[in-house]
Amino acid sequence: RRSSDLEVWRARVQKNPVNFLAMCRELSCIPDIWALKEWNNWLTPTGLGQSRRYDTAFFICCVQEIPFTTQDKKETVLYNWLTPHEALERFTPDGIWLPPPQYYELSRLCHFPSLQGLHEFSRERELEGCECWLPVRLAASDGFIQLLPGDELYPNDPHWMGEKNLNLSSTKSAEELCRDATRLHRIKYRSLYDFTLQVNIEPKYKHIHPLIKSNPRNMSSNL
C-alpha cells in the first residue's frame, strides 16, 4: 500500500470510524486482530486536574519485520523503534518522558531477552485476562506516591468514576511508608523524571513483575 493511500484513509477513519470497514473492503485486507495479545489495563487517576480520563488497554503484538509507520501530526508527531531498555534509558529531561503506565509496562518487557520468549508468554498469559488498575495518589511528607491494587494502603473503594476525590496523606516520608508496609505495589515519585517502582506482591493473572533496577542502563533486551 502506498503511504499516501494509508494517510488518506487514516484521516477518513479519524472523522468516522465506520470508514475503517470501507477501507478494508477497498484495500482487500483483513486486520490481524488475533495477533493482539491483551497485556494490561490502566485508568487515568482522578484529582489531577484533567478534563479527560482514559481507560487504556495495552496489547502486545510481535512482528518479524518493522511495519510501515507514519505520524498523523495530531496524537502522534514523531515515532521511533526502541527496545524496552533503550526507551527507559532515554527517560531523562533531555530525552523522552514516559507516563507511569508506560514506564511500568516497559519495565515488565525488560524481562524478555527475545521476541520469541515474549510471544510465547503473552500468548499463554492472555487466556487469564487482566484487571483495570486505577492509581490512587497518597501525599507523603517528602513527595507523593501512587498506590496500585494489591498495596496494603490501597483503598477498598477508589471511586472509579471520580465521584469523590481521595485526598490520602501521611506525615511519614515515602521511605518510612515503604519500610512499614508488608504488601507493596506503588510508584514513589521524586520528580517528573525520577520515580521508583516498589513491588513485592504476587502478580495476578499469571503476569510478571516489572524488572526493577536502580539504573535502567543495566537492563538488557533483544526485543
TrEMBL record:
Organism: Callorhinchus milii
Lineage: Eukaryota, Metazoa, Chordata, Craniata, Vertebrata
Similarity comment: family membership: Belongs to the Nudix hydrolase family.
GO cellular component entries: mitochondrion
One GO MF term attached to the UniProt entry: metal ion binding
Keyword hit for Hydrolase: yes
UniProt protein name: Nucleoside diphosphate-linked moiety X motif 19, mitochondrial
Cofactor: Mn(2+); Mg(2+)
Keywords on record: Hydrolase, Magnesium, Manganese, Metal-binding
